[in-house]
Amino acid sequence: MTLIKHRFSRRGFAAGAMAGALVGPQALAQAVTATSDMGPFYPLGYRGETDADLTRVAGASARAEGQVIEVVGRVLDKLGNPLRGAQLDIWQANHHGRYDHPQDPAVMPLDPGFQGFARINTGADGSWKLTTIKPGSYDSPIGNRPPHIHMDALGGTTRAMLQMYFPEDAEANARDTLYQSLGERAPTSVASALGDHRYSWDIVLLEG
Q1: For the chain, how big is the Rg over CA atoms in Å?
Q2: What is the pLDDT of residues 47-79, one digit of tens each?
Q3: How many angstroms separate the CA atoms of 12 and 51, rounded?
Q4: Do 94 and 104 touch, CB atoms closer than 8 A?
Q5: Which of the chain's ends, N or C, has fewer CB atoms near its CB within 10 Å?
Q6: pTM of the full predicted structure?
């Protein structure tokens, strides 16, 4: 089930109207990022993580296992306007393909050096940056799930549940039931490779 919730306020409506007036005719329509189910392993509670580096945990003796990657991007509305202060809740499986969640039945080990969840906000230009590890794939009731990163994106008036996939896993993505369910909009969920284990992924919300 696709989950998109709308939150409206007088302040948000006025800000959105003003932003649209300022952008003018140069604004370009953007393809809205395909939304996905929340999934069963949404973090149970916010634990105070405010940094954008999931590879280090305070008090842990070692950095997270796996390939360290960097993901950069922007949060935009469908007219291409950057969304300042948009909130991103981010969570994913660790290098072994296991979530730090009590309902995850996986027998793969947890990684004490992996944060697993973060909450960050976009800058004035809608930009965000994340340092993490590439998540492992894992078996699920609907088949093997390719590596992906979950994001709960909250703009001024729109909330969207998203999953970011990796371009080098194209064949595994194509076999994935949830990826297939996105239909022709599936490519909007795939990051672009920048080289040196860096990726770029812009998130486009239906509204600001």
Answers
A1: 17
A2: 777 789 999 998 888 999 999 999 999 999 999
A3: 26
A4: no
A5: N
A6: 0.85
